[in-house]
Write a sequence for this structure.
């Protein structure tokens, strides 16, 4: 369900930050990556959907070699993920799933113990893999932390309290909670096949000096429905959430993520978060994390946030607040909700965190699917994940 041309904008905006990152990953055959060539980098960003399989395999674990960003520092004490009883899963079926879905890493953690862990495509436990829209759920968790810390007073606060430039726009009267659930009522086009869509254009327009690129674009959008009445998937609104958290905390998102989750919870490896033309983290995507740390993030949510967020935060964040047009599925605070009380984070090309509270199981998958989105591949992935949850329940 999460999307693709988002990265067309996100990767292009990474180019604008201009930190002189070297092009050490595989380049597009049509557009050679040159950090000093803004138009070329825009084209490369737009071509992420059309990278070859070799390019995806080479670039997904090494985005920092192409695009600028900030490091989320891990702490000295790592939260252990000890080995548990091996998961009873058919070896041939597992191999077939890994091959069919171009899986680079798959891990199953139950009760904090690793019951299954596999790597492929040259990936390994010491690497990190891009998240695409899985990052949205990380950003949401920082809202919870900011509320606990008193930086954000309430989910019922108007967005304009934290981003006053939005006053007089379609975001008048929209609350923080409505941003989290993507029910602002502001009109948005997230069609990745349309070069004129909002998600494709939002980082490609010139931005006046001193203005935030996300706010500059989003404040021009019209309202199409009353706040809280209609769900529309909007990557731009997750980027607004990132601006809101940054404004409220007066800290870069990478710094705040490190302080509130990465270091105290015991993440094992540094993460990498790509930045926009203003040098701010792209909160709707573009966070690169190791497989085990993706699983730890799922465990963090499963455990209720380890005191970093309000006590009821994840109970509310991971329940359906909006219908998404598919029976049994819904949307919470930047988390997808699934049948049987499960929840998770999802990104294009198969990036997945899925959590089953009933069996206390977390599954994380990093992959390089042959297509950004594909209904058949998505159904097959969900079906196999369900078999893993069933195996964990035995």
């Amino acid at each position: 369900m999460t999307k693709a041309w988002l990265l067309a904008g996100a990767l292009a905006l990474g180019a604008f930050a201009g930190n002189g990152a070297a092009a050490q990953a595989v380049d597009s055959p049509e557009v050679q990556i040159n950090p000093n060539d803004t138009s070329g980098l825009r084209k490369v960003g737009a071509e992420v959907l059309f990278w070859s399989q070799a390019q995806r395999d080479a670039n997904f674990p090494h985005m920092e070699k192409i695009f600028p960003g900030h490091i989320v520092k891990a702490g000295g004490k790592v939260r252990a993920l000890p080995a548990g009883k091996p998961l009873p899963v058919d070896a041939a079926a597992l191999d077939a799933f890994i091959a069919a879905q171009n899986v680079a890493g798959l891990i199953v953690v139950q009760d904090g113990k690793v019951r299954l862990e596999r790597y492929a495509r040259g990936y390994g436990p010491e690497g990190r893999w891009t998240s695409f829209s899985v990052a949205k759920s990380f950003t949401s968790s920082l809202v919870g932390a900011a509320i606990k810390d008193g930086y954000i007073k309430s989910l019922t606060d108007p967005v304009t309290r934290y981003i006053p430039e939005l006053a007089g726009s379609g975001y008048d009267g929209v609350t923080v909670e409505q941003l989290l659930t993507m029910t602002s009522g502001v009109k948005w086009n997230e069609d990745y096949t349309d070069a004129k869509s909002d998600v494709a254009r939002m980082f490609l327009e010139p931005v006046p000096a001193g203005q935030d690129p996300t706010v500059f674009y989003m404040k021009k959008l019209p309202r199409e429905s009353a706040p809280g009445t209609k769900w529309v998937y909007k990557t731009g609104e997750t980027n607004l959430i990132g601006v809101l958290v940054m404004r409220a905390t007066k800290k870069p998102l990478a710094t705040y993520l490190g302080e509130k989750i990465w270091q105290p919870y015991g993440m094992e490896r540094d993460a990498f978060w790509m930045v926009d033309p203003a040098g701010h983290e792209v909160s709707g995507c573009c966070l690169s994390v190791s497989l085990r740390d993706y699983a730890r993030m799922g465990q963090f949510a499963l455990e209720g946030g380890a005191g970093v967020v309000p006590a009821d935060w994840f109970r509310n964040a991971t329940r359906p607040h909006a219908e998404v047009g598919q029976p049994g599925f819904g949307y919470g605070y930047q988390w997808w909700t699934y049948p049987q009380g499960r929840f998770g984070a999802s990104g294009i090309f198969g990036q997945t965190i899925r959590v089953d509270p009933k069996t206390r199981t977390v599954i994380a998958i990093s992959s390089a699917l042959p297509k950004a989105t594909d209904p058949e591949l998505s159904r097959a992935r969900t079906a196999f994940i369900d078999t893993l949850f069933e195996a964990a329940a035995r």
In short: Residues 184 and 227 are 5 Å apart (CA to CA). DSSP finds 13 helices and twelve strands in the chain. The mean pLDDT is 88. The first strand starts at residue 69 and ends at 72.
